[in-house]
């Protein structure tokens, strides 16, 4: 098995393609390569990730803000909105504390300006991603070969760091470093503390290690148990500090998402969605190369992990792309293997044809493959990074009552409300609420582009901002003592006439019943002339003459 894998690896094929290449020349060739060392690989990945973090103008999911940055802002500065997840205790503060520490550092350095507050978290996460890229490269090197690893550095998540350290995921487990497994267990425990669903991945890896290890008792009682208890204790202490009570987040998360199917409230998909739509869409044009790499490499442990994750997540009704992101880099690693195999095959063809230098011309299959991948992924990456969902979400349409009757729901809600200064919504929500907004003295002030394509239920093409008119707000608060005040308001803001109709009790309450009734009668008597003024068919002098 190992011999077949080495034959398929590109490093071995390099020597077949050029048998005259000495060991010293080969070392020199690798030393000048872009990914010749871990440090160089990390620097290249870090530069690309940081540039990407600064260029991206879109968002992927609202939870990027509501489950991390908004919570961190509240920790650091004392104010910020907490969504229902934090009130139910199904989220741990361990992850937001990272960004809260960053915000505190910015404040200490007097750099807590809007630009730094929005860009600094992205820069921090670009460092995490670069480390993930590095370990994707190292994992590819361990499983296959250095040449395959160069093709595999595409996308990654920090799950790869843990997988790299688990001996059972290597071709030769006995060659793993001495403390490799302990690091793997620690990273797995930390991943589960941050996101309890990570346990699905580490359950697979842990069971593989348990069945393949010779020191099983040591593995369970001297590594998994103490490291797991240590990480869980840290998580519980942080959550005790922030929640002000003892809360075991993984248990609450399990109850809500698995035992009560609380996630189904946000939509469900068919059981086969991850296999027929979700994961193929994520791989996009890499899909055929990933499948080919799985078949050619015969590395069933990492490919089995992909299937394991997709199957278990398929059991849940609520499905999202981001749930299976941890196994996306592994699938991309297999696509790197298939491209490296094509390079090796073309090198052999060049040798048979008597080519003296295989680098004179790029092998045709590899050239076509690279062109295909670039031409399909670069336009999509630019569009998704710069245009699609390029504005922040203002309101969330989570209420079925609101979606069924937006105007009715808003009218009922407005009975006892204190009018906000601004309302932000998608244009799909604005259409049924436009009359309500105008009647309550809200005026559109800005409209932002959001997306060309349908995102959720409707096409959310733009984000609309409405503002509450200040002059009318003051008049509403103090009421009207004379007919002249009311007429002056109606003359200056004709749209407020619709607000007056049906809400006269609210407007005239300060006058008392008798004065209110008299004022209403006077208004009704003047109504024809008033309407004429509002429509421009007569002047204010006509109204005075009619008194």
Order of strands in the sheet with the most strands? 1-3-2
Give the proportion of residues in helices.
Answer: 55-70%
Overall pLDDT level: 75
Individual helix count: 28
Please tell me how large the radius of gyration is.
Answer: 32 Å
Largest sheet: 3 strands, antiparallel
Low-confidence stretches: 1-32, 152-158, 392-398, 471-484, 490-514, 530-547
Strand-residue fraction? under 5%
Distance, first to last CA: 104 Å
Based on DSSP secondary structure assignment, what is the total number of beta strands?
A: 3
Form type: globular
- Provide the structure class: mainly alpha
Write the layout of secondary structure elements.
Blueprint (H helix, E strand, L loop, with lengths): L1 H7 L1 H8 L5 H9 L6 H18 L7 H15 L6 H5 L5 H15 L5 H30 L2 H7 L6 H7 L14 H15 L4 H14 L3 H28 L5 H11 L13 H11 L3 H11 L2 H16 L12 H25 L11 H23 L13 H5 L1 H8 L8 E5 H13 L2 E8 L12 E7 L1 H9 L4 H10 L3 H5 L3 H5 L3 H24 L4 H7 L1
Antiparallel strand pairs: 1-3, 2-3
Q: Would you give an account of this structure?
A:
With 547 residues, the protein is mostly helical. The chain is 66% helix and 4% strand. The chain is built from 28 helices and three strands. It has helices at residues 2-8, 10-17, 23-31, 38-55, 63-77, 84-88, 94-108, 114-143, 146-152, 159-165, 180-194, 199-212, 216-243, 249-259, 273-283, 287-297, 300-315, 328-352, 364-386, 400-404, 406-413, 427-439, 470-478, 483-492, 496-500, 504-508, 512-535, 540-546; strands at 422-426, 442-449, 462-468. The protein has a three-stranded antiparallel sheet. Helix 2 (10-17) packs parallel to helix 18, helix 5 (63-77) packs across helix 7 (94-108) and helix 8 (114-143) packs parallel to helix 10 (159-165). The longest helix is centred in the first third of the chain and has 30 residues, at 114-143. The protein is globular, with a radius of gyration of 32 Å. The N and C termini lie far apart (104 Å).
């Amino acid at each position: 098995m190992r011999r077949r894998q080495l034959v398929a690896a590109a490093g071995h094929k390099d020597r077949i393609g050029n048998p005259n290449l000495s060991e010293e020349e080969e070392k020199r060739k690798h030393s000048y390569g872009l990914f010749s060392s871990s440090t160089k690989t990390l620097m290249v990945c870090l530069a690309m990730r940081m540039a990407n973090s600064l260029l991206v103008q879109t968002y992927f999911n609202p939870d990027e803000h509501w489950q991390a940055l908004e919570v961190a802002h509240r920790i650091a500065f004392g104010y910020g909105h907490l969504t229902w997840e934090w009130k139910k205790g199904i989220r741990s503060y361990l992850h937001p504390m990272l960004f809260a520490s960053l915000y505190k550092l910015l404040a200490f350095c007097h750099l807590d300006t809007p630009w730094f507050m929005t860009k600094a978290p992205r820069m921090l996460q670009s460092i995490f991603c670069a480390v993930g890229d590095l370990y994707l490269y190292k994992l590819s090197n361990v499983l296959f070969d250095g040449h395959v690893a160069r093709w595999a550095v595409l996308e990654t998540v920090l799950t790869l760091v843990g997988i790299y350290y688990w001996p059972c995921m290597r071709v030769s487990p006995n060659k793993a470093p001495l403390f490799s497994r302990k690091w793997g267990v620690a990273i797995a425990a930390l991943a589960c503390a941050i996101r309890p669903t990570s346990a699905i991945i580490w359950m697979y890896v842990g069971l593989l290690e348990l069945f393949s290890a010779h020191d099983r008792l040591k593995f369970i009682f001297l590594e998994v148990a103490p490291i797991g208890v240590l990480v869980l204790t840290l998580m519980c202490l942080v959550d005790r500090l922030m929640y002000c009570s003892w809360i075991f987040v993984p248990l609450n998360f399990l109850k809500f998402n698995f035992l009560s199917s609380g996630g189904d409230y946000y939509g469900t998909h068919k059981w086969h969605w991850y296999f027929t739509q979700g994961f193929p869409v994520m791989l996009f044009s890499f899909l055929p190369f990933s499948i080919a790499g799985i078949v050619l490499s015969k590395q069933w442990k990492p490919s089995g992990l992909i299937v394991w994750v997709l199957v278990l997540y398929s059991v849940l009704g609520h499905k999202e792309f981001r749930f299976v992101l941890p196994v996306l880099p592994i699938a991309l690693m297999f696509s790197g293997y298939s491209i490296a195999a094509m390079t090796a095959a073309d090198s052999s063809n060049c040798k048979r044809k008597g080519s003296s230098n295989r680098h004179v011309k790029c092998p045709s299959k590899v050239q076509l493959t690279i062109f295909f991948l670039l031409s399909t992924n670069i336009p999509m990456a630019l569009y998704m990074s710069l245009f699609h969902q390029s504005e922040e979400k203002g309101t969330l349409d989570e209420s079925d009552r609101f979606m069924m009757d937006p105007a009715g729901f808003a009218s009922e809600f407005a009975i006892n409300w204190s009018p906000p200064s601004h309302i932000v919504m998608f244009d799909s929500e604005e259409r049924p609420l436009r009359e309500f907004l105008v009647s309550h003295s809200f005026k559109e002030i800005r409209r932002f582009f959001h997306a060309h394509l349908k995102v959720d239920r409707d096409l959310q093409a733009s984000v609309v901002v409405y503002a509450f008119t200040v002059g009318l707000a003051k008049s509403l608060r103090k009421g009207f003592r004379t007919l002249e005040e009311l007429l002056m308001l109606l003359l200056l803001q004709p749209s407020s006439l619709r607000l007056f109709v049906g809400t006269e009790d609210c407007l005239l309450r300060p006058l008392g019943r008798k004065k209110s009734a008299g004022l209403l009668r006077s208004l009704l008597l003047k109504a024809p002339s008033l309407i004429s003024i509002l429509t421009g068919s007569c002047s204010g002098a006509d109204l005075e003459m009619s008194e």
